[in-house]
């Protein structure tokens, strides 16, 4: 909020009955009167000087009650100070401190002026530089502010804490921390020591508040420290941490939780912290009880933060003690405590357990009776999995087990073995097997936790070790082997298959020797099942095969045995699967990509750098063969699958080497040139689209391009720039050709060898052959070439303007966006300066053509030449382009030129062409929003009448657009100014009712909103603000919506459309929630059929059958409703006949225009409203003699009396009542058979079609 807006809210309170509101308002009015008399501008500096003078004159009578002058001065000074220039504050620092410091002690009992005083000092300190911050009077005031951060009054305390945070966060350059930060830290430490000692109280005495006690002061201190701890110097944090550790001993639960949370923040954010072992020991010396659901989670989170630093040095005995102490909290019944304990132990295992501890445990002879710290931890976890007291914490224990397995991935050195096993394989393999047994146990609920353990175990020891264990197996070839395993309580572990995709150390040979034969066996079983018609079984085998090959990627992370296993035979198998099994392509392609890319980040403790180079050399030797396979797959897949195959090709190209890439490039280029000369007939496989070889070769060139040498890049550039490519009749070829050129420019390899002027000349010569889909890439290419145009070759800009301008009217949104960017880019290029050689332009070779300086004004003149275009499309596009330029360069275009642009384009509003008018309306909308008020106001007399001519046109939404423009005008210029531009003729006044209607509806909306606010209700019609598109130009041009609903009758009352009402009703009901509909005479059955009883919204307001009929009297004999109406005296007795006749006449002249006879045939009426309207339009005038004179006696047809006519609404087309629809009318059958005058009546049903 600006200062002017803030002061405007104070002035109206001069008549307030509240003294603390009235005094500042009267003082403000008096100051502004003085400023007006002195002809002084109402600037922040002027207010500041006036308030200082007033404060100086009031210091001799320091009274701070309500209505006194001094609190009002401080209030206004606190409001003005943030807007005063810092230089002014620095200059008047001595005066400020001499006036404010003496009144500080007297202010302490008075909270409102004290808060104003704190705000003033915040503005003062933030405005000072380093030398001025050493002022002793200022430091004295700052120390007093520090004491107020633990004041017993909440508002004072909060304001003081905010001042400290604002000061410390505003660091004067070039210091890393504020000069007062160290003082704040020292004060906090000393205050915490006093709090911990329990001696004394804090806070200043007031009339209504007591002094702050020790625990309360600690709570206030922690609340103040939490947002400023990041601004304190690192040297203070250790002493601050030590001072906060005893706070939980004061016995205040909230203080304990807050202090633990603050300590966790300090430990986590301190990047230069020292060893946190003393902190951990201090925390473990006073642990909270297990049942404390408030303090215990905070204590555990603090331990977790301490472990996360990694700066913990515990010996084996201490590590074991820490683990067991935290592990005991898993016995708690609170789930949050269990989760926090598991997270803390997981971090402990990953950060505290060292490789030396693991090595010591792995060297123990009896692995069943481990005595080391790691061994005791493993034993503790093993025991807890079987213990009854930890039954509720099984998921958390499994989480800890997963962290333990991950920690034991270290391989202890064993000189007798080349690749020693991991410590997890040595010590916890039995726990991994036991977790697998838990997963298949009936009724076990925590399978996700077990899967996490197994996934971690596979990533650490590999699936080969897991499957070689006695418990785990996936598939057995004979039924006897399966029966033997089941006799031991073991079942196939197919759930391991989805877990194989994680990176693991198992060799690639394990997949080839174990899973490839397994997949072949399963494929045979699938074929057998399909042949026997067992579709469910076949689907099962298909899923298992898919899971096996999805796990192939886990073996491809830099395998050590790659050269030996990834031979021609296995490569041929993968190729066959890629060709014949589309469902298995994604996992194999992903594996081939990982196989190449994983060697760039070798993190395995098995594969060395030398092994990585050897693997890459082997893959490089197979690259040419794989390119042939991948190119064939690339051509056979659909458009959705090309991206995945293209990623694999790009990965293999990076390792192929220049020679292989060049060889492959020449093959693709030769194929591309051959296809251009002699296009091959596309052949397709059944069920797939036919591949286009020409487009496929271009896509491959795009993939090869990033690694292409410079010479080949130049060759490819010349090929794609030729008319054979960018002038090709097929749009896809053009589009890809421009895309290749764009990528070559982006690669930066041809910048120094290209003649940009020649390139642009070639591009402009081919503009006539550009297809619509290729325009965006073409414009993007031109935009990339534009920065390379020299300042002496700006005659190219006018050549590009027509194409860029016309592209702004393209149907494709991205093409239009690229065109606008090009227009703006050319404007910036012209703004940079240069020379435009007009004699180099076509049609301007005459002697009088000369060189002109490149400016934005010259560029706008070039664009504006399109306003005299031969087609409305060109004129419309030019207006749109000028709109974009005016929005972008409004500060660079001279005012006289803007005025000329407005005068010119406003004329087009009167055009008869709708396309031109539509663009002109957009320009007007932008002008009203963006351009200066004075500039647009000069043209309102011309603009308003022209807009009023389109205010009633519904086509192209002109009516809505014009109304939006008028709403903007009224908001910016005022209603009187806009309405004053309406002409004086009766026709103009009639059109001007649009403006009156807008004003009336806006006033009505304001009254409604004010009434809702006065009643304390929310305005249901308030809508969310318009969403921004991210483009400021589009937000201005298209993003604005009307503030009032549309209506067909501009002079009548505005009513929202039915669609809008129903939408708002649904939203309102959705906010109210879901309720159950109650039927009066039917009991609610909550077990069956209750779904249709649940409705959204409030009470059920639907009409029930017979609801309206219950309000009428009934004839006891017939059951007919008796409707009593108050009629006039002397009314004829044949009212029923007249009513029936009127209904018959209405049916004959209705919009429907037909009835059905007794046999169901349609009979069209001749005397309908539509036909009468056509007759009037055709004849021009109404024949008065036919209208008023005697008519021929036509033969009257017998009128049909419609059954239920007496219930038909008089002023509507059906049974429509005000406030709803009455769909039911009860009539006895006797009425249908009743005779009148001795004759049977012909009857029909109302509304029958």
TrEMBL record:
It comes from the Eukaryota. The keyword Nucleus applies. It is found in: Nucleus. Signal peptide: none annotated. Residues 1054-1063 have a biased composition (Polar residues). GO terms for cellular component: nucleus. Residues 29-270 form the RRP12 N-terminal HEAT domain. Residues 1015-1024, 1042-1051, 1126-1139, 1176-1186 have a biased composition (Acidic residues). Its main location: nucleus. Residues 1064-1078, 1110-1125 have a biased composition (Basic and acidic residues). Keywords: Nucleus. Residues 989-1141, 1154-1206 are annotated as: Disordered. Residues 998-1010, 1162-1172 have a biased composition (Basic residues). InterPro entries: ARM-like, ARM-type_fold, HEAT_RRP12, HEAT_RRP12_N, RRP12. It holds the Pfam family RRP12_HEAT. Residues 332-636 form the RRP12 HEAT domain. Gene3D superfamilies: Leucine-rich Repeat Variant. Belongs to the RRP12 family. This is Ribosomal RNA-processing protein 12-like conserved domain-containing protein. It comes from Clathrus columnatus.
């Amino acid at each position: 909020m600006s200062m002017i807006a803030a002061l405007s809210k104070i002035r109206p309170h001069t008549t307030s009955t509240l003294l603390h509101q009235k005094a500042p308002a009267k003082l403000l009015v008096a100051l502004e009167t003085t400023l007006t008399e002195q002809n002084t501008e109402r600037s922040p500096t002027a207010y500041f000087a006036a308030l200082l003078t007033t404060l100086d004159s009031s210091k001799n009578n320091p009274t701070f009650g309500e209505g006194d002058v001094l609190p009002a001065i401080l209030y206004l000074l606190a409001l003005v100070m943030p807007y005063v220039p810092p230089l002014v504050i620095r200059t008047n620092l001595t005066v400020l401190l001499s006036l404010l410091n003496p009144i500080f002690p007297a202010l302490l009992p008075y909270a409102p002026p004290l808060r104003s005083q704190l705000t003033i000092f915040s503005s003062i300190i933030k405005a000072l530089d380093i030398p001025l911050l050493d002022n002793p009077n200022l430091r004295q005031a700052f120390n007093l502010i520090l004491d107020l951060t633990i004041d017993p009054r909440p508002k004072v305390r909060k304001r003081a804490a905010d001042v400290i945070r604002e000061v410390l966060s505003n660091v004067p350059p070039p210091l890393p921390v504020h000069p007062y930060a160290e003082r704040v830290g020292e004060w906090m430490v000393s205050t915490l020591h006093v709090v911990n000692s329990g001696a004394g109280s804090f806070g200043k005495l007031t009339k209504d508040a007591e002094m702050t006690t020790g625990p309360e002061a600690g709570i206030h201190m922690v609340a103040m420290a939490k947002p400023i701890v990041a601004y304190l110097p690192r040297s203070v944090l250790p002493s601050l941490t030590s001072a906060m550790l005893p706070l939980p001993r004061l016995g205040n639960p909230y203080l304990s939780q807050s202090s633990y949370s603050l300590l966790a923040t300090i430990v986590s954010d301190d990047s230069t912290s020292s060893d946190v072992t003393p902190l951990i020991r201090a925390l473990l010396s006073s642990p909270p009880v297990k049942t404390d659901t408030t303090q215990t989670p905070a204590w555990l989170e603090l331990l977790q933060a301490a472990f996360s630093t990694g700066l913990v040095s515990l010996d084996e005995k201490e590590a074991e003690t820490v683990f067991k102490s935290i592990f005991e909290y898993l016995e708690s019944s609170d789930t949050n405590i269990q989760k926090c304990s598991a997270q803390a132990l997981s971090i402990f295992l990953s950060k505290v357990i060292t490789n030396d501890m693991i090595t010591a445990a792995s060297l123990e002879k009896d692995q069943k009776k481990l005595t080391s710290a790691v061994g005791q931890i493993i034993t503790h976890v093993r025991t807890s999995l079987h213990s009854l007291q930890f039954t509720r914490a099984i998921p958390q224990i499994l989480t800890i087990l997963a962290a333990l397995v991950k920690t034991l991935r270290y391989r202890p050195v064993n000189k007798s073995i080349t690749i020693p096993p991991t410590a997890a394989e040595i010590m916890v393999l039995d726990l991994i097997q036991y977790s697998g047994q838990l997963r298949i146990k009936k009724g076990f609920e925590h399978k996700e936790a077990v899967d996490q353990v197994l996934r971690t175990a596979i990533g650490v020891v590999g699936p080969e070790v897991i499957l070689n264990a006695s418990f785990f197996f996936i598939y057995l070839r004979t039924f006897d082997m399966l029966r033997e395993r089941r006799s031991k309580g073991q079942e196939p572990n197919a759930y391991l298959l989805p877990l194989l995709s994680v990176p693991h150390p198992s060799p690639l040979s394990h997949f080839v020797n174990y899973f490839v034969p397994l997949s072949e066996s399963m494929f045979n079983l699938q074929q057998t099942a399909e042949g026997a018609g067992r579709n469910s079984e076949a689907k099962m085998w298909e899923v298992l095969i898919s899971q096996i090959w999805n796990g192939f990627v886990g073996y491809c992370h830099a395998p050590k045995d790659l050269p030996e296993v990834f031979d021609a035979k296995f490569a041929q198998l993968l190729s066959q699967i890629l060709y014949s099994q589309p469902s298995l392509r994604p996992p194999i392609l992903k594996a081939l990509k990982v196989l190449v890319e994983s060697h760039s980040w070798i993190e395995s403790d098995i594969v060395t750098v030398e092994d990585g180079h050897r693997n890459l050399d082997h893959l490089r030797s197979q690259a040419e063969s794989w390119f042939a396979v991948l190119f064939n797959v690339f051509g056979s897949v659909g458009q959705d699958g090309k991206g995945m195959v293209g990623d694999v090709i790009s990965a293999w190209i990076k390792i192929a080497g220049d020679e292989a890439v060049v060889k492959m490039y020449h093959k693709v280029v030769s194929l591309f040139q051959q296809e251009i000369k002699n296009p091959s007939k596309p052949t397709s496989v059944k069920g797939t689209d036919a591949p286009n070889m020409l487009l496929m070769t271009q896509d491959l060139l795009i993939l090869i391009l990033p690694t292409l040498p410079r010479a080949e890049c130049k060759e490819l550039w010349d090929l794609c720039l030729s008319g054979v490519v960018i002038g090709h009749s097929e749009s896809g070829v053009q589009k890809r050709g421009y895309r290749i050129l764009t990528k070559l420019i982006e690669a930066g390899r041809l910048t120094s060898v290209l003649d940009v002027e020649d390139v642009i000349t070639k591009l402009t010569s081919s503009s006539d052959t550009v297809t619509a889909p290729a325009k965006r890439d073409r414009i993007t290419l031109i935009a990339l070439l534009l920065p390379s145009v020299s300042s002496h070759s700006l005659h190219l800009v006018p050549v590009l303007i027509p194409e860029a301008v016309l592209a702004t009217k393209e149907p494709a949104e991205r093409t239009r966006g690229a065109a606008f960017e090009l227009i703006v880019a050319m404007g910036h290029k012209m703004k940079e300066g240069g020379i435009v050689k007009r004699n180099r332009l076509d049609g301007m070779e005459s002697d009088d053509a000369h060189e002109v300086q490149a400016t934005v004004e010259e560029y706008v003149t070039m664009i504006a030449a399109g306003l005299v275009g031969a087609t409305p499309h060109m004129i419309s596009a030019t207006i749109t382009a000028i709109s974009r330029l005016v929005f972008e360069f409004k500060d660079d275009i001279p005012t006289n030129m803007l005025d000329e642009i407005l005068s010119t384009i406003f004329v087009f509003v009167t055009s008869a062409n709708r396309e031109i008018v539509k663009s002109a309306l957009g320009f007007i909308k932008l002008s009203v929003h963006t351009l200066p008020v004075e500039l647009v106001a000069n043209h309102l007399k011309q603009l308003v009448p022209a807009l009023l001519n389109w205010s009633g046109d519904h086509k192209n939404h002109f009516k809505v657009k014009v109304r939006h423009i008028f709403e903007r005008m009224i908001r910016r210029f005022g209603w009187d100014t806009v309405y004053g531009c309406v002409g004086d003729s009766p026709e103009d006044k009639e059109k001007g009712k649009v403006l009156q209607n807008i004003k009336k509806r806006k006033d009505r909306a304001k009254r409604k909103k004010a009434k809702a606010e006065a009643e304390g209700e929310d305005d249901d019609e308030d809508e969310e603000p318009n969403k921004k598109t991210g483009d400021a130009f589009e937000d201005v041009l298209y993003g604005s919506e009307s503030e009032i609903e549309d209506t067909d009758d501009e002079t009548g009352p505005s009513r929202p459309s039915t669609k809008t009402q129903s939408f708002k009703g649904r939203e309102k009901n959705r906010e109210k929630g879901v309720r159950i509909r109650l039927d009066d005479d039917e009991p609610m059955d909550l077990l069956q059929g209750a779904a249709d009883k649940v409705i959204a919204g409030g009470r059920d307001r639907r009409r029930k059958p017979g609801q309206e009929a219950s309000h009428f009297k009934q004839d006891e004999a017939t059951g007919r409703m008796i409707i009593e109406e108050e009629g006039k005296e002397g009314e004829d007795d044949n009212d029923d006949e007249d009513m029936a006749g009127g209904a018959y006449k209405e049916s004959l002249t209705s919009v429907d225009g037909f009835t059905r006879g007794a046999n169901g045939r349609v009979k069209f009426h001749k005397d309908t409203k539509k036909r009468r309207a056509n007759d009037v339009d055709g004849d021009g005038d109404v024949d008065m003699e036919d209208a008023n004179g005697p008519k021929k006696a036509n033969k009257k047809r017998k009128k049909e009396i419609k059954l239920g006519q007496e219930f038909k609404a008089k002023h509507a087309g059906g049974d429509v009542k005000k406030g709803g629809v009455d769909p039911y009318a009860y009539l006895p059958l006797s009425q249908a058979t009743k005779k009148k005058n001795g004759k049977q009546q012909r009857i029909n049903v109302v509304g029958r079609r």
